[in-house]
């Protein structure tokens, strides 16, 4: 499934230690960015601005400049900026004297599902591109990565489309109330529950293994686990926020130090075996079909519109997150 760079001096232990380091750093940076407003601003406004200048000047010969990588880094960063604004922007109307919060604006609450859907669609487009143009294997023209196209790409692309369709309840997005232990103002999404998150993770891992095989060890494994673990433990209910922040931080790192994951000692390649390619995409398709069927079942049973309101309000995990809201 994966091939370590033994010839370059890597070992199973050293590669796993680097993987753990990547995971811990992503988890830790996400914690800092979510708990401290100023650090969130620095990480997702100041840092990408400075790095963008470097990418298109002194680093232009080494960084990724293809449409996909640029779209990924800037769309994920845009998501972080938008979520930061939803979490922290508030004030008082000078005419009426009433307090206002961006988190109470329904138009603003359409931004999270929109940026999420855009990110998923970028990956769906890539899966179709590889499936159509690289049957039997070939090197991508834009980033010189070898990929193998096949039916797995189509299965996973369909899974991604289903993942978008099953995004529900965004008008229920709310802000986490401040406590002594957590003053993060996390952007909670009570209707985005564990089964959707797991289906997304399986789909996204399959996508990285299909279309970014040389990066799947880190961005398809450590990068997916960090926000999910946070969302299931200390940062409950705010998975999308954690996902956007860890993804943006990783993309900025990969843009700046591409050799780390492409040609360095700890680069991890795919074995390009068709069995895991097929199995992961098949699992992604099955998982997302299951979530779609469950959504349809809940819609029929409750008569609720999942795109105008919240769908899973009767579930305990929904209530658990909702109780944390301000």
Q: Could you describe the 3D structure shown?
A:
By secondary structure, the chain is mainly alpha-helical. It has one domain. Helix content is 60%, strand content 6%. The protein has a two-stranded antiparallel ribbon. A hairpin with a 6-residue loop joins β4 and β5. The chain is globular. The N and C termini lie far apart (45 Å). The relative contact order is 0.16.
Number of strands: 8
- Computed over alpha carbons, the radius of gyration is 20 Å
Mean pLDDT across the residues is 93
Shape: globular
* Percentage beta strand: 5-15%
What's the short story on this structure?
With 326 residues, the protein is mostly helical. 60% of the residues lie in helices and 6% in strands. The protein is built from 11 helices and 8 strands.
Give the helix/strand layout.
Blueprint: E1 2-4, H1 12-35, H2 37-55, H3 67-88, E2 90-92, E3 99-101, H4 111-133, E4 138-139, E5 146-147, H5 151-165, E6 174-175, E7 187-188, H6 194-211, H7 216-231, H8 239-256, H9 259-262, E8 268-270, H10 274-302, H11 316-322
Antiparallel strand pairs: 1-8, 2-3, 4-5, 6-7
Relevant terms:
two-stranded antiparallel ribbon, 326 residues, two-stranded antiparallel sheet, mainly alpha, single chain, 11 helices, 6% strand
């Amino acid at each position: 499934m994966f091939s370590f760079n033994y010839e370059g001096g890597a070992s199973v232990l050293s590669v796993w230690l680097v993987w753990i380091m990547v995971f811990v750093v992503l988890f830790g940076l996400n914690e800092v960015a979510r708990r401290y407003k100023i650090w969130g601003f620095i990480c997702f406004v100041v840092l990408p601005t400075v790095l963008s200048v470097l990418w298109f000047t002194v680093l232009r010969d080494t960084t990724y400049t293809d449409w996909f990588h640029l779209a990924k880094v800037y769309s994920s960063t845009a998501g972080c900026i938008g979520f930061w604004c939803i979490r922290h922007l508030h004030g008082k109307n000078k005419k009426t004297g009433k307090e206002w919060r961006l988190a109470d604006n329904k138009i603003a609450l359409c931004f999270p599902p929109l940026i999420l859907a855009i990110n998923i669609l970028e990956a769906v487009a890539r899966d179709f591109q590889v499936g159509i143009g690289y049957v039997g294997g070939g090197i991508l023209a834009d980033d010189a990565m070898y990929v193998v196209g096949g039916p797995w790409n189509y299965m996973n692309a369909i899974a991604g489309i289903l993942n978008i369709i099953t995004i529900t309840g965004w008008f229920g997005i709310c802000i986490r109330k401040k406590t002594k232990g957590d003053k993060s103002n996390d952007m909670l999404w009570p209707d985005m529950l564990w089964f959707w998150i797991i289906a997304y993770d399986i789909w996204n891992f399959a996508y990285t293994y299909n279309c970014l095989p040389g990066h799947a060890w880190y961005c398809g494994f450590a990068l997916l686990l960090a926000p999910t673990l946070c969302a299931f433990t200390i940062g409950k209910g705010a998975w999308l926020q954690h996902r956007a922040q860890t993804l943006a931080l990783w993309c900025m790192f990969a843009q700046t130090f591409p050799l780390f994951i492409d040609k360095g000692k700890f680069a991890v390649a795919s074995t390009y075996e068709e069995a895991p390619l097929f199995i992961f995409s098949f699992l992604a398709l099955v998982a997302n079909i299951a979530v779609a069927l469950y959504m349809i079942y809940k819609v029929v049973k409750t008569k609720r519109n999942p795109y105008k309101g919240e769908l899973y309000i009767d579930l305990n995990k929904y209530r658990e997150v909702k109780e944390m809201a301000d």
